[in-house]
Design brief:
The complex is a heterodimer of chains A (543) and B (460). With 543 residues, chain A is an alpha/beta fold. Helix content of chain A is 43%, strand content 12%. A six-stranded mixed β-sheet of chain A has the order 1-12-11-10-13-14, sandwiched between helices. A four-stranded parallel β-sheet of chain A has the order 3-2-4-5, sandwiched between helices. In chain A, strands 7-6-8-9 form a four-stranded parallel β-sheet, sandwiched between helices. The longest helix of chain A has 29 residues. Chain B folds into three domains: 175 residues, 3-Layer(aba) Sandwich (Rossmann fold); 134 residues, Nitrogenase molybdenum iron protein domain (Rossmann fold, 3-Layer(aba) Sandwich), CATH 3.40.50; 118 residues, Nitrogenase molybdenum iron protein domain (Rossmann fold, 3-Layer(aba) Sandwich). Classes of the chains: A alpha/beta (543), B alpha/beta (460). The interface between A and B is large, with 93 and 83 residues. Strand 3 of chain A pairs antiparallel with strand 1 of chain B.
């Protein structure tokens, strides 16, 4: 069990730690890694190297493009058959392993509990797999009669030249349902991030805008980049419903393809996970004139702030009053729990290395409890998620990012919302910010250590140096960190707890931190006789 | 309903797999390599493969699972992954300092035609492999066989690489383990001790994937078959392979290269398979079977006779890997249960003949299938047509179990929602006792929860 450190007078300069980490690397690797490790100073502009290739052999947290596309973005949508074209593993591993909860009505389609694959064999690799893919789509249609089928490419598909897009077009014509493909082969990008982009493009091209249905609410919004891990979306849905805000569609927690088809009739897009979904927000603004704002519903204060932002956007007095009423009521509940837990956990140290937004968002929850984040980083984010969207024009396009198609989006003359454009201009002139993501770094303390794509070696050294009280990462890191005597909270799966979003979620998280940080089990690691001298008795069997 | 689209009408499928009862080769190669001491598995492919396999194994064991990846990008996929693997070997030895890197391929590197053997030789020639360190490689294309095939290929690679034949035979036998749990490997070693037979167990994941909490992370835990042990396998008197699918290749390789004769027997699950295993051991080690083993056997039979009424005639559906479920099915039949539906995604023609041999007389109505489209969807459809009393398989069965209200015993890979499998063995007679206990518990729990109040029993 590591000894506690006292950082009440500010965080220590971690330069020596950084040097020690780098010393182990061959020079070429050290030269690259140092650019991804920044000693934070919020008073100056700092650049972090992100969204670049992981060095082969490094034990990384990252996954692949397919995981980002099928697993993250499309996975949570229930009324579509997600058919994976490839050998069996890719579909098997993405089968129910992300905790995207979903709540279908009686009789409504739900394919999330199923795993569909073409289970490619060597003959398909040699002679091509298109015929098998077509047959698999036919079989899926005949057995399940789905409204839509998505086809996901795995690594070999692109290499052998199977064209999932033309097969999808043919089958769409043959079967008369919406069928579309994704070129999300695992190797397409440097991480899951490429897959998010590919998924955004595919959904925008093939789904968004198919149904121009009439308005159903006074304030119509979409929630983008919320995946309903552990029921987060259910918390948010209840919140919006009470406020009188109509949530048209989520991308993609607790979602349906059907709802995405009319998502372009919204008045506002709220972006939660900037990294995985900002592309759709941007494209919807270009095509339909729908503005987007960055929100964060992780943390009670952040939830209040985000709710107020949405109410301010609509500018409706009734809505504003309702939102204030909810905030007041809910914060009272949150604070009642907080006052009993905060004194027990205040001053503890946290570290978080996860995802493309969670490593930032969760700092708000920790701050509310007085727990400091000493080091953090993303698994697959880009520079703008660290430094803010202002750096986007300066991000170099490299060979890996060039791979991913940038859709050319044109204005939909019929549906374009000039009223929203005018509203946006008006609000902007009053200081209201749109597309307002300033990134993780400005929110972090001086001398905190920012590390992009942290790896196993760095994790070990970080624990040794900071001796954190809680470490946040994913399943692969969970038991590595815990073996070192530090509790790990998974921020992908929430360790099968949660929800942690909105006010109710904040309460859950506080209680969870109390549980994790107050337990005595970690103090029992050493047996009581560990430090006793050894006795050699005369009654041993050998004696 | 969790699986609301599953109906009893079975439509023949030739292309679509739904809810598979298998996964792909590399995860098996990774698991096998974890059973070698000081070894870091390496996945030569996209990052996702390594990430998925590590996640699957971590969820199953709730233990650290360390492995590295070649992190392919579009460029490496077009121009070949040689540069990535050379770089990876250099990085791994510098940063993570293993004794051995066990490289396995993926569908990606196999499709582009990377020659692992040639790349590893090049790494050695270029001085990227430090003195006294090793790089072993196995081809594990994901589009052939299943996870079991990958395990078998990695096992073969280890013995091919390390086993050496010298002039002196050793009075020991090679025990090649099929894909079983760390607790099972521990039990195999205990049985060898009781039998007083010297042996080398390969692989051995005990003390690797069931390590104690010490407050200190060990990248290479104390368990695992050592290099010296693997080298010595070439001089052993005999090899005993437990499970044809997982161990036959390695056993044949030891015979071909080192002239170590072999016998393949089933994984010792239940009575008869354990009988055969013990007899094979006694023959190979030229020892008589100790009383202790007979007593353990007696205890198992005793419990079955005590509780026979709760087992007799119960209809069971089983899915999993051939090496594991063949002896299990035999055990169920020995207890007068009725294994009526059996699927395994792992191909292999012996499956059918073994099933026929076990089932044709005692359970003539049994339906079984392995290979393409032998998936859990098909099994569920059979269950919809005519229900069963018990379901046995990996965690994915819980969706079927809940929808159909079937008592469910978790066995196989992966088990990601319960603990116990890695700590309590299901092998040998004592492991058989655990299987019986688990089966009885779920059957009797259901009776207790659902019977009429006047039929509620205190003593059962």
């Amino acid at each position: 069990m590591p000894n506690k450190k006292d950082y009440t007078n500010g965080l220590p300069d971690p330069s020596a730690l950084r040097d020690e980490i780098l010393k182990k690397y061959p020079p070429k690797i050290a030269k690259k890694r140092v650019k991804g490790m920044v000693i934070n100073d919020p008073s100056v502009e700092q650049e972090v190297m992100a969204n670049v290739r992981t060095i082969p052999g490094i034990i990384t947290q990252r996954g692949c493009t397919y995981a980002g596309c099928k697993g993250v973005v499309l996975g949570p949508t229930r009324d579509i058959i997600n058919l994976v074209h490839g050998p069996i593993g890719c579909s098997f591993y993405a089968w129910l392993t992300r905790r995207n909860q979903t709540r279908p009505a009686e009789g409504e389609d739900n394919y999330i509990t199923y795993c569909f694959s073409t289970d490619m064999q060597d003959s398909n690799i040699v002679f091509g797999g298109e015929a098998k893919l077509k047959e698999a789509i036919r079989e899926a249609f005949e057995i399940f009669k789905p409204k839509a089928i998505g086809v996901f490419s795995t690594c070999p598909v692109g290499l052998i030249g199977d064209d999932v897009h033309s097969v999808s077009r043919d089958m769409k014509a043959e079967l008369g349902i919406n069928i579309f493909g994704f070129s999300c082969e695992g190797y397409r990008g440097v991480s899951q991030s490429a897959g998010h982009h590919i998924a955004n493009n595919g959904v925008f091209k093939n789904v968004v805008g198919l149904n121009d249905r009439a308005r159903t609410g006074k304030f119509q919004v979409n929630m983008l980049g919320e995946y309903n891990i552990g029921g987060d979306a259910f918390e948010l849905e209840a919140l919006f419903e009470e406020a009188g805000i109509t949530l048209l569609s989520s991308f993609s927690g607790n979602s349906t393809i059907k709802s995405m088809e009319y998502s372009h009739t919204a008045d506002l897009n709220m972006v939660m996970c900037h990294r995985s979904i900002n592309y759709i927000a941007e494209m919807m603004e270009e095509k339909y004139g729908i503005p987007w704002v960055k929100v964060n519903f992780i943390g009670a204060e952040s939830t209040a702030k985000s709710l107020r932002k949405v109410a301010d956007y609509f500018g409706d007095a009734g809505l504003k009053a309702k939102v204030e009423e909810i905030i007041e009521r809910e914060l009272a509940k949150v604070n009642a729990v907080k006052v009993s837990i905060k004194p027990k956990v205040e001053g503890k140290l946290a570290m978080m290395f996860v995802g493309g937004s969670r490593a930032h968002h969760y700092q708000d929850l920790f701050n509310e409890l007085g727990i400091r984040t000493v080091s953090a980083g993303y698994e697959f984010a880009h520079r703008d998620d660290y430094e803010g969207r202002k750096v986007i024009p300066t991000i170099k396009i490299d060979a890996d990012s060039r791979n991913i198609e940038e859709l050319t989006v044109t204005k939909d003359e019929k549906l374009f919302r000039n009223d929203l454009v005018a509203k946006k201009a008006d609000l902007e002139s009053k200081g209201f910010e749109f597309k307002d993501y300033a990134g993780m770094m400005p929110d972090m303390a001086k001398n905190s250590l920012i590390i992009d794509d942290v790896n196993h070696w760095e994790t070990e050294k970080l624990i040794e140096f900071y001796k954190p009280d809680v470490f946040c990462a994913g399943i692969k890191e969970k038991y590595v960190v815990q073996k070192a005597g530090v509790p790990l909270k998974q921020l992908h799966s929430y360790d099968y707890g949660g929800p942690y979003a909105a006010f109710g979620g904040a309460i859950n998280f506080y209680i969870e931190m109390e549980r994790m940080l107050a337990t005595n089990i970690w103090k029992m690691i050493d047996a009581p006789w560990k430090h006793e001298s050894e006795l050699v008795g005369s009654m041993t069997i050998e004696a | 309903m969790l699986l609301r689209h599953t109906t009893k009408e079975v439509r023949e499928r030739n292309a679509l797999t739904v809810n598979p009862a298998k996964t792909c080769q590399p995860v098996g190669a990774m698991y096998a390599a974890l059973g070698v001491h000081g070894c870091l598995p390496h996945s030569h492919g996209s990052q996702g493969c390594c990430s998925y396999h590590r996640s699957a194994l971590t969820r199953h064991y709730k233990e650290p699972v360390m492995a590295a990846t070649s992190s392919f990008t579009e460029g490496s996929s077009v121009f070949g992954g040689q540069a990535n693997l050379l770089q990876a070997i250099e990085t791994i030895f510098a940063v993570y300092e293993p004794e051995i890197i066990a490289v396995h391929s993926t569908c990606l590197s196999e499709t582009i035609g990377d020659d692992l053997n040639q790349i590893v030789i090049k790494a050695r020639d270029e001085g990227k492999v430090p003195f006294g360190k090793y790089v072993v490689q196995a081809a594990t294309p994901s589009y052939v066989g299943s996870h079991v095939t990958g395990y078998a290929n990695m096992l073969e690679a280890f013995v091919k690489y390390f086993a050496e034949k010298t002039d002196e035979k050793r009075r020991q036998i090679n025990l090649l383990s099929g894909w079983v749990e760390p607790a099972d490997m521990r039990e195999l070693k205990r049985i060898m001790k009781v039998m007083k037979i010297k042996s080398v167990l390969l692989p051995d994941t005990s003390d690797v994937l069931d390590t104690p909490m010490t407050g200190k992370f060990e990248m290479y835990p104390k368990g695992g078959t050592t290099i010296a042990e693997m080298v010595s396998m070439g001089d052993s008197m005999q090899s005993l392979g437990l499970g044809e699918w997982a161990t036959e290749k390695a056993a044949i390789s030891l015979d071909n290269t080192c002239r170590v004769p072999f016998e393949i027997t089933d994984i010792p699950v239940g009575i008869k398979a354990t009988d055969r295993f013990i007899q094979a051991l006694a023959k190979a080690g030229r020892v008589s079977i100790p009383e202790q083993i007979s007593e353990e056997r007696g205890r198992l039979i005793d419990v079955i006779t005590d509780m026979h009424q709760y087992l007799y005639g119960k209809r069971v559906a089983v899915y999993g890997d051939p090496d594991n479920i063949i002896p299990l099915i035999e055990f169920l039949v020995d207890m007068d249960m009725q294994p009526v539906y059996i699927v395994s995604g792992t191909p292999g023609k012996h499956f059918e003949s073994r099933m026929a041999e076990i089932l044709s007389e005692r359970v003539p109505e049994a339906k079984y299938k392995n290979g393409p489209q032998a998936d859990m969807f098909l099994m569920h459809q059979w269950i919809k047509e005519n229900p069963v009393d018990l379901l046995i398989g990996n965690t994915y069965g819980k969706y079927v179990a809940r929808d159909e209200n079937i008592p469910f015993v978790r066995m196989g890979f992966p088990i990601i929602d319960r603990i116990g499998h890695s700590y309590f063995s299901t092998l040998g007679y004592m492991g058989g006792l655990r299987i019986v206990e688990k089966i009885l518990s779920v059957l009797m729990d259901k009776q207790d929860a659902t019977c009429l109040e006047e039929k509620f029993e205190l003593v059962m």
